[in-house]
Specification:
Helix content is 33%, strand content 25%. By secondary structure, the chain is of the alpha/beta class. The chain has two domains: 2-113 and 286-320, Quinone Oxidoreductase, Chain A, domain 1; 117-258, 3-Layer(aba) Sandwich (Rossmann fold). The strands form three sheets. Strands 3, 4, 5, 6, 7, 14 and 15 form a seven-stranded mixed beta sheet that branches. A six-stranded parallel beta sheet has the order 10-9-8-11-12-13, with helices on both faces. Strands 1-2 form a two-stranded antiparallel ribbon. α2 crosses α12, α4 crosses α5 (144-155) and α4 crosses α11 (265-280). Residues 13-315 form the Enoyl reductase (ER) domain. Residues 1-23 are annotated as: Disordered.
C-alpha cells in the first residue's frame, strides 16, 4: 500500500515521503481500516516537527483523524493508532473507540467531525457551560477548530464574535454565522469586542491560539466569564496572571479532549450522538475548504502548519471520492 512516512523530524513538506509499505497489522483490540478520507489537523504538523505531546517511533505515518471502512463494510470515524496514521491507504485503530460516521456527512466531512467538534462540544458545554443568550468569542474563527466552535455556539443559541486574520477569513467567518467578525490585522480586537458587547465583554472565550490572543481574552472577558484554553497555535504559551483572574472574577479552563477517551469514554460516545443529531438537522457541517488526493498530503499538511488555510483540508482516497 502507499503511505506517507516521516523518517526524521522537520517541516512536513520536507520530511513526509510517499512510499510503498506493507499494510499495518492490528494489535490486540485493534482493527484494520481502509481509509476513505483523512482530515488534516495542526497536531499532524507538530508530529512531523517532533513537537507533539505524543512522539511515535520513526518512521511513522501521520494523520490523526479519519473516516474509514471496516472489513465488514461499516463506515466509521476513528483516531488511528500511531505510528500507523491516516495518510495511507490503510490504518489501524482501537476497536472500542470506533464511532459510526453520520449519514448526513460525506467522507471528508465525517473525517473532520471528530477532534475539532468534540473539542468544541466539551469546551463549550462540559467545561464552560455555555448558555443560550450568552456571548461567545472565538479566536481563529475561520480555522478548523474555530469554525467548529462557531457552529456549535450558534447551535447553542449564543451570540458569536469571531476573530480572524485577513479579509478572506473574515468572509468565511460571516458565512459560518458569526454575528460579529473582527479582523485582528486591521482592527483593535479589544476595542471592537468592548464596542460589540456594550463594554460588558464575552461570557465565554474559546482560544486555540494562545499568545497575544490570550492577552486580548483577559482584557475582554465578562464578569463571571470563562476562558477555555484549547491550544497554542501561535507557538507562544501564555502565563496567566492569577491576580487578574481574581480581581475580575473569571475562570481559566483547560481542555485536553484526549483525556476523555481514557477518563470517561461513555461521555465521548454521548458527545458523538449529540454531534450526529446536530449534523442530521443541518445545525453543524464541517467546513472542508479543500479536498486533495493522497499524493497531495504533504503540501496540504505544510499549508496547515503555515496557517494558510480556512476550515479543513481533507485527503480523499480516489475510490471514496
Amino acid at each position: 500500500m502507499q503511505a506517507w512516512q516521516v523518517h526524521e523530524n522537520g517541516e512536513p513538506g520536507e520530511v513526509m515521503r510517499l512510499q510503498d509499505v506493507e499494510p499495518p497489522t492490528p494489535g490486540d483490540g485493534q482493527v484494520l481500516l481502509k481509509v476513505r478520507a483523512a482530515n488534516i489537523n495542526f497536531p499532524d504538523a507538530l508530529l512531523c516537527r517532533g513537537q507533539y505531546q505524543v512522539r511515535p517511533p520513526l518512521p511513522f505515518t501521520p494523520g490523526v483523524e479519519i473516516c474509514g471502512e471496516t472489513e465488514d463494510g461499516r463506515r466509521v470515524i476513528a483516531n488511528p493508532a500511531l505510528p500507523h496514521g491516516g495518510f495511507a491507504e490503510y490504518a489501524v485503530a482501537d476497536a472500542a473507540a470506533l464511532l459510526p460516521a453520520p449519514d448526513a456527512l460525506d467522507d471528508a466531512e465525517a473525517a473532520a467531525l471528530h477532534i475539532g467538534y468534540q473539542t468544541g462540544w466539551f469546551g463549550l458545554h462540559r467545561r464552560a457551560g455555555l448558555e443560550a443568550g450568552e456571548t461567545l468569542l472565538v479566536h481563529a474563527a475561520a480555522g478548523g477548530v474555530g469554525s467548529a466552535a462557531v457552529q456549535l455556539g450558534k447551535a447553542a443559541g449564543a451570540t458569536v464574535i469571531g476573530v480572524v486574520g485577513g479579509s478572506g477569513k473574515a468572509a468565511v467567518a460571516r458565512e459560518l454565522g458569526c454575528d460579529v467578525v473582527i479582523d485582528r490585522r486591521s482592527e483593535d480586537v479589544v476595542a471592537a469586542v468592548k464596542e460589540a458587547t456594550g463594554g460588558r465583554g464575552a461570557d465565554v472565550i474559546y482560544d486555540p491560539v494562545g499568545g497575544e490572543a490570550y492577552t486580548q481574552s483577559a482584557k475582554v472577558v465578562a464578569f463571571e466569564g470563562r476562558i477555555v484554553v484549547v491550544g497554542f497555535a501561535s507557538g507562544t504559551i501564555p502565563s496567566p496572571g492569577l491576580n487578574h483572574a481574581l480581581v475580575k472574577n473569571y475562570s481559566i479552563l483547560g481542555l485536553h479532549w484526549g483525556l476523555y477517551n481514557t477518563k470517561n469514554p461513555k461521555l465521548v460516545q454521548h458527545c458523538h450522538e449529540q454531534l450526529t443529531e446536530l449534523a442530521a438537522r443541518g445545525a453543524i457541517k464541517p467546513l472542508v475548504s479543500e479536498r486533495v488526493p493522497l499524493g497531495g498530503a504533504a503540501d496540504a499538511v505544510q499549508k496547515v502548519a503555515d496557517g494558510l488555510t480556512t476550515g479543513r483540508i481533507a485527503v480523499v482516497m480516489e475510490e471514496a471520492a
